[in-house]
Amino acid sequence: MSRNRISRKTFVASSAGAVAVASFPVFLPQRGRAADLIQIGASEEITGVYAEPARNEIRGMQMAVDQQNKSGGILSREVKLIVEDNANNPGTAVEKARKLIQVDKVNAMIGTVNSAVSQATSNVCLESTIPFIDTGGHTDSVTGSQCHWTSFRTCHSTWMETHATGYSIASKLGKKWYYLAPDYAFGHSLLDGYKDIEQKLGVTVVGEDLAPLGTSDFSAYLTKVLNAKPDVLIIMQQGQDLINALKQANSMGLLKRIPVAGPQGEIENFWSLPKEARVGYWGFEWYYKSPLVIGKSQAAADFIKQYTALYKQPPTARGVFGYVTAQRMMAAMDKAKGTDALKISQALSGEHFSGLWDGDAYYRDVDHQLIWPMWFGQVRPDGKNGDEWDIFDVIDAQPGDKVEKPADEQKSICKLNYPA
Amino acid sequence: MIEQLAPEIVNGIVLGAFFAIIAIGLSLIMNLTGTINLAHGSFMTLAGYLAFTLMSRGTNFWFALAASAICTAVIGLVVERLLISPLYKRVPLYSLLLTFGLSLVFEEVFRLIWGPSTVPFSAPAELSGATQIGDIVLPTYRLFIMAALVVVMIALLLFLYRTRIGLRLRGAVQDAEMLAALGTNTQLLYMTNFGLGILLAAIAGVLAAGLLGLGPTMGNDLLMPAFITVVIGGMGSLAGSIVGGLMVGLAISITTLYLPAASEVVMYILMAIVLLIRPRGLFGEEGIFG
Question: Does domain A37-156+296-372 have CATH number 3.40.50.720?
């Protein structure tokens, strides 16, 4: 065999080529929209750090669509959900949204986990006059400074998350805080929310770090936290980043010395953690064993039963986001008697409905944010009463309208600009 | 100042040792057969998952570490014989594309078997917690990782310099045709070399799973810094991989302390500077085992 060594130049060029190939979006030809179908496009983070929450959102969406089709579809038309992977990247998300709208001719868009992706998708939907419900991207701007008449949001805003958890953190864990936040739209938005709490509660911030999204080694940040000796470390990371941070905090012994808390504790993340790292006080957006769900809503009981039977695990908040989002979009189409964006938007706005929890909910007409309860609680290492999935104890709950910015204040931030 | 900096230096060394061990595996494979193994990270992840599976069936961490590393190396050998070796006579682009495709296949297989989320992999209890050295508090598991990687590197050096197979491997890197003409079974050498590279990746993979979330992309997330380590250290240099790894690890850790926003980009800046000053990398001219 001949010598087959590679020059540095070949190596660098080949590696760059491979990375380029890996990041190039794949467009597969799809058949056009059948005239008798109503198509809903779902943009989700199927690959990347948010793959698990994205999968659960899709599960919820698909359940809602299947149920709708079983009961006759919308105006006797079958509903089809077309899912695209936005790869957790706003640029790719824009391309995929355009592909769904222009090539697949979807009638409406839903989805997203990553806040930056949510905002990018929301902007594309406005350009194309397509109704969009942000399923799970929390940044304030989607229903705040960059709100659009075509866009709505199901999950809570970061303002709601910080205000629902901030007061409880201060009273339960102390007022000397250290922030660890992801360095993108979601983290910045959460920090803004906590800044508001700081002033009201007289909180002292002893440290604040913004770690790039996708950080794998948090040891440098955690060492700074240990040196700063806060009353509580507020971790705002999500997905894989949160898992890495908690796992490494545990291995450094930090979890035994400093309490941790956060605005958003996704149960998927805690199921993925070793038991010794399942600690802390977190904001929860929905929980299947919450007193606000159990015995309070027949719809919730049915949803939990069906979801668990289908997917062999209980539904998470993400599953609820997907289910409620798809269900509300289809209900609005039904009410609007078609797929006209303006009529769908008007049908969604301000309409009260029974959710999968105690009490009703509505997309607020002033900014299109869904107003529904937010919970605070503590994570347990082990399940309870023979249910290995049940690792969260609800301590407190706040009604949605108490933790979101008042409508009057929001009017000056969000300009929906409906067409005349 | 020093209280803050000292733990970062230790963290940087641990991180750097990780990158170095992955980079050495990449370098070994690259230099002998010209294969740029983009599936290297997938073998790391595979080893982590195998260890997790063994541990969830009741075996202890140490057995799981050894057994999963050996199993992964064996799987690596099968892949090398069946898929990669037929491409040795072709330009490196073929094997690069093949291993890139393999990494995608591996990732999907991981998703199918172990799910898209991370699995709860724990480091052994005896290595949890922190060790106090003077005023500095260091995670025990990281100290263990550092020690383990040093042992692995020393073992590798002894293998390459004190055994006949090591001698032949070094000879094959210099001139494989001549070695074949002298009667050495070079295919066996290629296999040994590939298996060795994958064994190193597998050990790093299991150790990494104790620190990071063990999910389908864990190994691939560590691959880019490892490639940068290879470029900085110089292609084919064992010493270069070690020095390059430590430089990347330290740069990331120290930047995180003072300028977190730049912590991800600093390794690229470092690579650009090294390439501008010394395009072959720091140890690029000295040959693979120099």
Answer: no
Domain ranges of chain A: 37-156+296-372, 159-284+375-402
Alpha helices of B34-123 — where are they, by DSSP H? 40-56, 61-79, 92-114
pLDDT of B2: 66
Of the two residues A95 and A185, the one the predictor is more confident about is A95
pTM comes to: 0.78
What's the complex ipTM?
Answer: 0.74
What is the domain class of B2-117+129-286 according to CATH? mainly alpha
The mean pLDDT value for A282-288 works out to 93
Q: Which residue has the higher pLDDT, B128 or A13?
A: B128
Q: Output the pLDDT for position A299.
A: 87
For chain A, percent of residues with pLDDT exceeding 90: 68
B residues 203-242 closer than 8 Å to A (CB): 210-213, 215-217, 221-222, 227, 230-231, 235-236
How close, in Å, is residue A218 to chain B by CA atoms?
9
With CB atoms and an 8 Å threshold, state whether B11 touches A220: yes
Q: What are the residue ranges spanned by the domains of chain B?
A: 2-117+129-286
Which CATH number is associated with domain A159-284+375-402?
Answer: 3.40.50.2300
Say yes or no: do domains A37-156+296-372 and A159-284+375-402 share a fold.
yes
SS3 content of chain B, % helix, strand, coil (to 5): 75, 5, 20
pLDDT (average), residues A319-329? 97
> What string of DSSP letters covers B200-253?
HHHHHHHHHHTTS-B-TTHHHHHHHHHHHHHHHH-TT-HHHHHHHHHHHHHHHH
- A335 pLDDT more than 90: yes
Q: Structure tokens of B27?
A: 């370098």
Distance from the Cα of residue B148 to its chain's centroid: 13
Chain B residues closer than 8 Å to A276 by CB: 122, 128
Interface of B with A in 133-192 (CB under 8 A): 137, 139-142, 175-177, 180, 186
**A388 lies within 8 A of chain B by CB:** no
